[in-house]
Amino acid sequence: MNRLKKEQSLNEYFFRINRAIDYIKSNLDADLSLDKLAEISNFSKFHFHRIFKALTGTTLNNFIKTARVERAMFYLNNNPSTPISDIAYQSGFATETSFYRSFKEVHGITATEFRDSHQKVNSKNCKQDSNIGNLENEAQQYLASKIYNLKTISMDKRKAIEVEVKELPELHVVYVRNLKIHLHDSETFGKMFEALIRWAAPRGLVNFPETKALTVYRSNPNLDGMIQADVCLTVPEEIEGEGIVGKTTLSGGMYAVVHKEATMAECFSTWDYIFEEWFPANGYQPDNRNFYINHLNEAEKHPQKLHIFDMCIPVKPL
Q1: Measured between alpha carbons, how far is 262 from 153 in angstroms, rounded to an integer?
Q2: Does residue 241 sit in helix, strand or coil?
Q3: Which of 151, 156, 174, 278 has the most neighbouring CB atoms within 10 Å?
Q4: Are the C-beta atoms of residues 291 and 272 closer than 8 Å to each other?
């Protein structure tokens, strides 16, 4: 097989596996059977596990388990009054026992310990930084670092953060996905956008500013800051992806939108502020849809190399 045919074949594999991943992410509380996922990706049941691991670097079962634990982590952070047993079932686990075991395998602590540490950090209400150094377990350190990063926003800047809650439309997007990228790895994110634009431009799909360039966050950062993320371009509904370029739809609905001109580090500090302070004070809670950033400029062309963007966080009333 020549090089071109090999690339075409590999691209088709990525395209099919991405369809399965999209289905998994949208149906974590359903029965994610091998039969269904193999059918969606158009691979045989016999080969699906091996193909999935070869392309993603992890087993199918581990991917599903981690995705469900990430959803549970989201619920534990943002729904402190919901019983853990309910969160286990809402996240797709068949039993509480399997949930507790899986959570500890992924995060190194139990779900109860994670929730307790989160509430403990919140109850400190951003006290002296010296308290942060005394936290003993990794989850506490992670949550404390969120509080520390939040404090890097000065009070003047916090007052300048304006949040608008509004309805946003459903968006049809093509994407390039990365299942393990650091939250602040701007170089790799840039290369992903370059690959996507190389695919889209010859097809007449790049027409800024009508075309929106988005980063969609598919998971919470782990303790090392690693996430799953897509870089996206909006396209007409009839457009289909191919190869490493997938196609999906971002749900419309109610979003908290923050317009910023800042570094990306400030962006994520603002994100922390929204979750830690704005939500409790404004009668909203995070909804289980994807958080995304709408990029409105090329930072390299900005005089101060700043990013101009809309941060879009899905919300629902308490």
Answers
A1: 11
A2: coil
A3: 174
A4: no
pTM of the predicted model as reported, rounded to 2 decimal places: 0.66
CB 250 within 8 Å of CB 173 = yes
Q: Which residues pair with residue 254 across a beta bridge?
A: 167
- Which residue in this structure is represented by tokens 């005394």? 134
Q: Model confidence over 281-311: pLDDT tens digits?
A: 787 878 878 889 999 998 888 999 898 999 9
Q: Which amino acid is at 152?
A: T
Q: Measuring CA to CA, which residue among 316, 171, 156, 155 is closest to residue 251?
A: 171
Locate 44 and state its tokens.
Answer: 């045989």
Q: How many CB atoms lie within 10 A of CB 84?
A: 18
Q: What residues contact residue 275 under an 8 Å CB cut-off, 6+ apart? A: 77, 78, 286
Report how far residue 111's alpha carbon sits from residue 282's, in angstroms, rounded to the nearest whole number. Answer: 27
For residues 254 and 165, give the distance between their C-alpha atoms in angstroms, rounded to a whole number: 7
Give the span between the Cα atoms of 16 and 117, in whole angstroms. Answer: 40
State how far the Cα of 5 lies from the Cα of 240, in Å rounded to an integer. 20
First to last CA, the chain: 57
Q: How far apart are CA 142 and CA 154, in angstroms?
A: 21
Half-sphere CA count of 135, side-chain side, radius 13 A: 25
Q: What is the token pair recorded at 228?
A: 């799953």
